[in-house]
Every structure is written in structure tokens, then in C-alpha cells.
Amino acid sequence: MLNKETKKRIDDARDILVGQLPLPSDQIELITITLIFKFMNDMDKQMEEFGKRSYFVGKLKPYSWDKLTSNTLDAGKRVELFSKAIEQIQKADHLPQLFREIFKNMFLKFKDGNTLQRFLTAISGFEYTHSEELGNAFEYLLMTMGAQGANGQFRTPRNIIDFIVEVVDPDVGDSILDPACGTAGFLVSAFRHILRKHTKGYENYRITLNNNEKEEDTAVRWGDKLSVKQKEILGKSIVGYDITPMMVRLAQVNLYLHDYKVPSIHDYDTISSKDRWHEKYDCILANPPFMTSKGGVETHKDFKLQESKRAEVLFSDYILEHLTPNGKAGFIVPEGIIFQTSTDYVDLRKWMIEQDGGLWAVVSLPANVFQPYSGVKTSILFIDREFARKTDKIVLVKVENDGFSLNTNRNATSANDLPTALDLLREFPSTTLRERNDTLGEQNNAIKYLILDKIEFKRLDSYRAVTTARDFCKKSYAKVVKAKEDLEAKKKELEEKQSKNKKKQPTLIKGNPSKEDWELNRLQEKYDKQVVEFCQITGYKNSSCLPQTEEELISWFDTNIKQHAITYGVELTDKEKLSPKLVEILDGEREYNLSIDRYGKPKSTLNEKYPMVKLGEVCSFEYGKSLKEENRIKGEYPVFGSNGIVGYHNEYLVEAPFLVIGRKGSAGEVHYSKLNGFPIDTTFFIKLQDENKVLIKFLYYLLMTDGRLKNLNTQAGVPGLNRNDAYNVKIPLPPLEVQKQLVAEIEQYQKVIDGCNLIIDNYKPNFKIDPSWERVKLGEVARILGGYAFKSQEFKKKGIQIIRIGNVGMGFIDITKQPSFIDETRLNEFNKYIIKDGDILITLTGTAEKRDYGRVCFIKNNNTFLLNQRVGKVEIFKQDVLIPMFLSLVMQSDLYQENIFKQAKGIRQANISNEELESIEIPLPPLDVQKKIVTEIDEDMQVLDGVKRLKSKMEGKIKAVIEGVW
User: The pTM is what?
Assistant: First the structure.
């Protein structure tokens, strides 16, 4: 069992090495080979009791651990002896091939004898009587590696590995591969799983994944029911690839220490190389790297999805192509593979669902399961080709907790969906759908899941089917109109020309026409071709009597095509009623989305009190219109951006009431306007299909409270919302009368919230200034220190948070706004810019018109922050006459703020300098008066906190009303 002493020794060894080997990878390499070195020596000592050593014999005898750590060696000799020992181990034929491979190309990368002596002393603390003990130390060593986040590689938590292996259920006789094996976590788990299945007394045992798993008893003869032949097969069945030599070495060690004596781990570039392309496997387990290098991944033409340049798509392709016809797989993918609409993502999902890909289950994992290394959101795809051919169902499971806190600490908790998810997935292949729905829906009410027909993933909603088909017909018709206009224009041009020349009107002739006649013929042929294509696409029978206007076309479309497009889009029938081209176009719109949120509420939480409809059936998302700030003429109509009102204009685009949905930036944010307004081009505004079916305000509360649209972001950079994704979101639709009742109840709570907001927004800490108080310039008692110009390319996802302008509010600090961090190890570089409790911050830049600069807040937080540029820190150097909290109140006062606005420079962007702030006068009453004022303000703030709690309570009531609708 891994204990504190083992952890401490590993940590101590790394601390000793860090001065000579600053790279963690170099430290781990040296610790790894030294642990193996010590392990071989300890095994020799044990075997000496039986009269025989196995490792440090012959040419290796002079290099035993005892001789290496002897006090008779001076520092230089010890370095020399250890270096030679590493070299000789690589050449020692009597050692297992694995050990020689582990030491291959290794050498001591420093010459400091004192460091080496202290390091070897630390390693001497390890005593190994069984390889499992070395395995425990080695496992902790791997944990300290953390992640190679820059490459999209993260150490997979053991509970997730074991979950995947238990679901896939490999067995003796299965060939098993991890194509991006890292340290071989999946392969070790698969090996242990197979041994357990074939151990007397453990045949029906299954791990529970509930954080209290018993350590495997080393006294148990694991795999004791395996025959000699089965052991031989198993010993050749487990294979791993990795592109990094160090990972190959670590994987070999990890498997060896778990009693897999001849690991088959290859230094191999899975994506770029073709040397092992011919190999197929019965079982593939993986958490491949997600990160795609700039310019895309270089690969070869044997990939089915070779046009893709994304690592996650190509690894998924590799797994599917290298499974045997009845193969199984379980692998982790980033969330983009589940729902994003890029062609390669869609093609991959279509392959897995339709083309014998074998997909039968998708498990959505919570963000942060890879903490503290990454907060990336992932899912697990489960493939079983044999089972998938027998069923027309796919199960979607949502794991919201994995038994550990979803933060950087990852402490064990009681909240764990994995055991229930495992039970569900184990039972899924062996029961009928009705039994699953009736049984598991009741038993597993803690887990969210949906069981869907495969056809559900292919469906187009009726709105999208109609608009896709109609738009394609309109484009074809537009080509006809354009070709006709070009032909008529050319005819008119020739007529005018001939009229001038008093010649006969030209006719279309064969043979050797003139240049003008040739051009006329070309345009006539182009027009005829467009007419034929239009008729082929639409099925329009009378090519000599085409629609005269687009309105006529749409009317004809609605009568002859619309319903067939809906039927084929939704039900995949009526295919023969549509042209092949329209069928192809509609099929190209199918997304095969695998997100459980796409298909309504999961089984365990679904309330079928009201019918579920797709959002696209009750409303449309219309694009806002561009209106740059410089083009706005100040007026009465609010201008909406994705995060709400961004200004006012003298004209409106949409009549009230209406909803605005963030399209770019604050994607999925929902805003309600009771005034006519102007949504700009970073937004959608909603048009109801039928006002007798849905109230605009009911839709607002439903979308705002549920937050589903925010989860549909499909952009890697600037967040973005695709309206076609939104159209597929299912919502409950109560009768109109019920909607009115619900809105009335919600608005009672909303009135209280509005009242609370009035208090919160309008309260300002205030106090009377006595004219008799002394007045001094701020610079006489304090100084303003500017922040550091941190570069965005240096920002990390965790570490010491940088406080930027957007984080500073009037009287408060908001650390949730675009948090940016610097690595903790660099804190000493920025001592001057550290923010601590009791500091006062002020923003030095903002928009002149909005007067959104000069915001002041007092820091009451136990965290450490760093100060960014254009945020000032007020440092009081006369604390015997001035209380920091009192100064903060003074600087927030209207009088001081007005002086800031007077001093600031700039027409559009206002800036105020440190010197200008220090020149502003402040009142300086006696300390006892300052303390009394601060106490009174504190009492006010306690009342204000009560108002905030009331607001939060009312918001909870609104949420409860909406959740009741679901």
C-alpha cells in the first residue's frame, strides 16, 4: 500500500535533484532507473539466502548498491562508478531484456558528487521485498508527473481507467492495444481485470468504483485458474504504442512491476507511421492526446478520415480501423467529437453509428475530472461491433460526479455516479428496452441516462429540413434567374447594336457563328442547363413554364416538396418523393449529435407532465444587424449585444416584447426587452412561430433559468452559438393558460428581486464630511502603485490570479470574470505587485462617456493576487493617522469620484495617472471618528448582505417553478 513515507521519499529525491535536473522528466527518468537498480540489489539479497544472486553478478558485481553507496568512495569516484554501472547494465546479457531496454541510452546528466550521494541516500530508504512495493512507489512517481497539458495529454485517473476496462470487459484470448499508452495505466488495469476473472473465489467479483476498493492481496494467487496455455496467450496479448521514449520506458516498468513480465511496448508514432498499420486488435483502450499542433497533424492516406488534421479525430479513426470485425473499444474523447458540426466530426459520428463502427454507449464525464492538470470536458465512447449489430439502440449516460471533488484538490467524496453507470452499462446488452426503461429507470434514479433508437441521431427537425430544402431550391432558382437575365441582356445588347447597323435580328445558327452569335449560344446553353438542373432538383415538370417570382417558387415548394422534406428529414421515409440531389443535401445536414443534452431531459429526471417540443418548432432565431458604435445616434431604443444592453439608438429593428440570444461572445445568454430595440450582429432575436402556442415571457424564463443554450458553444476560440443546434433543444410546452399562470407566479418573485436590485444598485457607503476635519492631499499619506504589464501568452489555467480592470467593481472584486493566472513558481518575480488583505485597488482606465474608471474596492480575501497594468494599488505609508477601510470609503465617495473625472485625460478612453490621484484632497478626521464611520458602514453592509440573501432566495423560487415544468 502506498504510504506517507514512500511519498515523502519520492518528494525528497526530487527536491535533491531539482538543482541539477530542473526538468521533471529528467528527475523521473533518473529516479526510475535508480529504483530499478535498488530493486535488483534487494532481490539479490533475498536470493543470497538460497545461495545465488541473479543481477549483480559477473561483470556487474563491482556495481552493486552496497559498493555504490559505500562510505569509502569519494564524491568523484561515486559519480564515475554510477555512470559506469548504468553503462554496464545496458550491456549485461544475463539481465532480462526489459531491464536492459529500460537503461538503454541512459546516462547521468550531472557530475556533482554531493548531489548524487544525497540522492542515493534518499533512495536507500526504499526496501523492496516484493515487486508490488516498488509498484506502489512507481505509481506515486507517475502521479507526480502530472500532465503534458501542452500536448493535450493528461494522466487518466485510475477510477476512470477501471470504469472503462470494466465496461469493455477484456478476457483471455483478446488481443489488447493502447495506441497512446503513456505509462500503461489502461494496459495494467486490463491485465488485472483478466487475472481477477480467472482467480478462484473472484470469478464473479466486480470492482465497485466507490473509493473504498480493497488493495489487491499479494497473498492471493491471481489468475490461478488460468491454464499454462492461457497464461502464454495472455503474456503475448497486451500491446502499447507511444511516441515518447521515456513513456515507453515507464510503461514497460509499470507492466513489469504488475507481474506482466514481457511487456510489448513500442516506440511508435501511431498517427504518422505505417509500420504497424496492418495490425488488428480485439480490444482497444485509450485516452489519446487531444491537442492538434499548429497547421494540423501530418498523417498518411490509409486513414478513412485522412482529410482531417485533428489529433482526436485521427486517433478515433485509428481505433475504429484497427478493431477486428467483432472488436470492442473504450476511449476518451474531447467534447467536440460529441456535438460539433465540422465535417470531420460529423463523418466520424456517422461512421460510428451507421457504418459498422459499433458505437453502443456514450458516457459524458464532468469537467475537471483531469484536475489539477486540466478542466477539459470529455466523454467516453464505447464500441462493441458484435453487440451493435444486434441492437438498434444507443445509450447516453451523464456522469456528474466521479467520487472526487471537481476542483484542483480532487479529494474523495460520497458523490459518485460511476458505480450506478457501471451497473446500467453492464445490464444494457442483456435486457430488452422495455425492461431497461421500467427497471433501471427506477433503480438508478441517481444517474441520468437516455436510451435512443439509432434513427434519433439521424433525424433533422422539421424546421431545418424545410429551410435546407427550400434554400437549396431557391439557390437553384436564383441561378436560373441569373442565367435568364444574362441571356436577355445579351439579346438586348445585340438588338441595339443591330438596330444601329440596320441589320436583321440575329438568329441562333449552327456551323460557324459570329463571335456575337457564339456568345449568345453559350448563354442560351447555360440557361437551358440551369433550367434542367432546377427541374431535376425540384421535380418541377414543366420546364417551359417556370415560376415567375421567388414567391411563386416558395408557394410551389410548400405544396409539392415541403411535407416530403419534413418526412424524409424527420422519419427518413418518402425518400423516393424527393430528387436524389435534395436527398443528398438533407443527408448532409444530419449531425449525428451524441450529446445527451440535445435530446431533452434524461430518463431519471424527465417529467412528462407536458409535451416536449424542439425549440425550432415554436420559434426562429433571426440574425441581428450590424450597428457600429460610431454609427449610433443616441435615442430611446436600447441596443443589444450578446451580454445585454450596450447603448441606445434613435431607430429600432425589432418591436417589443422580444428576446435576444447571445450569438458571439456571451453565447447563449438570454435577454428580455419590453421596449422596441436594436439587436446587433453578435446576437439572434427570437420570432415566435405561433403566439397562440407560447408566451414570449414564458420562453424567456425557461431559457434563462435552464441555461441549456450556453452549453451549445461550438467554437474553440470566441464562444459561438449555432442556431441549428439551438433548434434541436427540446423544451416542455404547457398549455397557454398554464404558461400565463407560471409567468404570473414568477413575476411575483421577480418584483422582489427588482426591489432588491434597486437597493443593491443604489446603495453607496456614505457619511457626512465635517468642514472642521483636516484635509490633506492623498499623496501626503499614501502612494499609488501601478500594476505590471503581464503578457497574455504567459497566462496559465491555474496558479496566482491576476487582477485586471474587469475584476474590479465599485466596492467589490469579482474574480470570476475572465480569470487569468501566472505560474505559482514565478511569484517571487513579482513581489512588488502582490495584492493582499487590506489593500485598496482603483482602476485607472475606462470609457470617458460611461465613466467606468476610478472604481475602488477594499480587499477582504485570504487569497494572493497579482496586480495587472492600469489597476492601481493604494499603499498607505502613514497608517498611524489613516485607516485603510476609511480611505477606501473616501475614494468611493461622490466628491472624490467627481475629482477623478475632472482630472482624467482622453476623449474616448479616459486615463488618470498616479500623480493626479495623489493630488486630490481627502478628509482626515481623527482615528476614533474614522473607526466609528467604518463600524456604521459595516452595519449597513450586513443589512445589504441580507438583501442579497433575499434576492438569492427569490431566484431559487423562480428556478424551482421552471424545474417543475420539466
Answer: 0.59
The residue count of the chain comes to 966
DSSP letter for 635, please.
-
CA–CA separation, 32 and 274 (whole Å): 31
* Closest listed residue to residue 658, CA positions, set 691, 636, 611, 635: 691
Amino acid at 904: A
Q: The cell 458505480 sits on which residue?
A: 419
Q: DSSP 3-state helix, strand, coil percentages of the chain (rounded to 5)? A: 45, 15, 35
Residues near 928 by Cβ (< 8 Å), separated by ≥ 6? Answer: none
Average pLDDT over residues 630-646: 91
Question: Cis peptide leading into 765, omega within 30 of 0?
Answer: no
Q: Which three cell numbers stand for residue 228?
A: 499454462
Residues 6 or more apart in contact with residue 370 via CB below 8 angstroms: 147, 154, 155, 156, 157, 376, 378
Q: Using CA atoms in the order 56, 61, 62, 63, what is the torsion angle rounded to 10 degrees?
A: -10
Q: Chain centroid to CA 582: how far?
A: 35
The answer to whether 388 and 403 have CB atoms below 8 angstroms apart is: no
Helix axis angle, 75-91 relative to 24-48, nearest 10°? 80
Going by DSSP bridges, is the β-strand pair 678-679/683-688 parallel, antiparallel, or unpaired?
unpaired
8 Å CB contact between 324 and 280: yes
The pLDDT of 346-373, averaged and rounded, is 87
pLDDT at residue number 314: 92
CATH of span 4-143: 1.20.1260.30
Q: Which of 345-359, 586-600, 713-727, 826-840 is predicted most confidently? A: 345-359
DSSP designation for 849: T
- pLDDT tens figures, 432-472: 443 444 334 434 445 788 899 999 999 888 878 888 899 99
Asked if residues 655 and 676 have their Cβ atoms less than 8 Å apart, the reply is yes
Q: Cis omega (within 30 of 0) on the bond before 372?
A: yes
pLDDT at 821: 87
Half-sphere exposure of 750 (CA within 13 A, CB side): 12
DSSP secondary structure letter of residue 200:
T
Contact 166, 235 (CB under 8 A): no
Asked if residue 833 lies in contact with residue 867, where contact means CB atoms within 8 angstroms, the answer is yes
Q: Do the two domains 146-210+225-457 and 607-733 of this chain adopt the same fold? A: no
Distances (CA, A) of 954 to 313, 695, 754, 949, 960: 45, 22, 10, 9, 10
DSSP 8-class letter at 825: G
Backbone angles phi, psi at 848, to 5 degrees: -60, -45
Question: How far apart are the two ends of the chain, measured CA to CA in Å?
Answer: 47
Sign of the alpha-carbon dihedral angle for 622, 626, 632, 633: negative
Of 817, 908, 900, 823, whose CA–CA distance to 856 is shortest? 900
Q: Which CATH number fits domain 774-924: 3.90.25.10, 3.40.47.10, 3.90.220.20, 3.30.1060.10?
A: 3.90.220.20
Alpha helices in 182-327 (DSSP H): 185-197, 228-234, 245-257, 311-321
How many Cβ atoms from other residues are within 10 Å of residue 652's Cβ?
19
Query: Exposed (0-12), middle (13-18) or buried (19+): which is 551, by Cβ within 10 Å?
Result: exposed
The CA distances from residue 221 to 171, 254, 640, 789, in Å, are 18, 20, 70, 62
Fold annotation for 607-733: Adenine-n6-DNA-methyltransferase TaqI; Chain A, domain 2 (3.90.220)
Q: Which CATH code is given to the segment(s) 146-210+225-457? A: 3.40.50.150
Average pLDDT, the chain: 84
Phi, psi of 486 (to 5 degrees): -65, -40
Other C-beta atoms lying within 10 Å of the C-beta of residue 927: 13
Question: How far apart (Å, rounded) are the C-alpha atoms in residues 650 and 636?
Answer: 6
Domain boundaries of the chain, sorted by first residue: 4-143, 146-210+225-457, 462-588, 607-733, 774-924
More confident: 223 or 966: 223
Of 291, 360, 356, whose CA–CA distance to 594 is shortest? 360
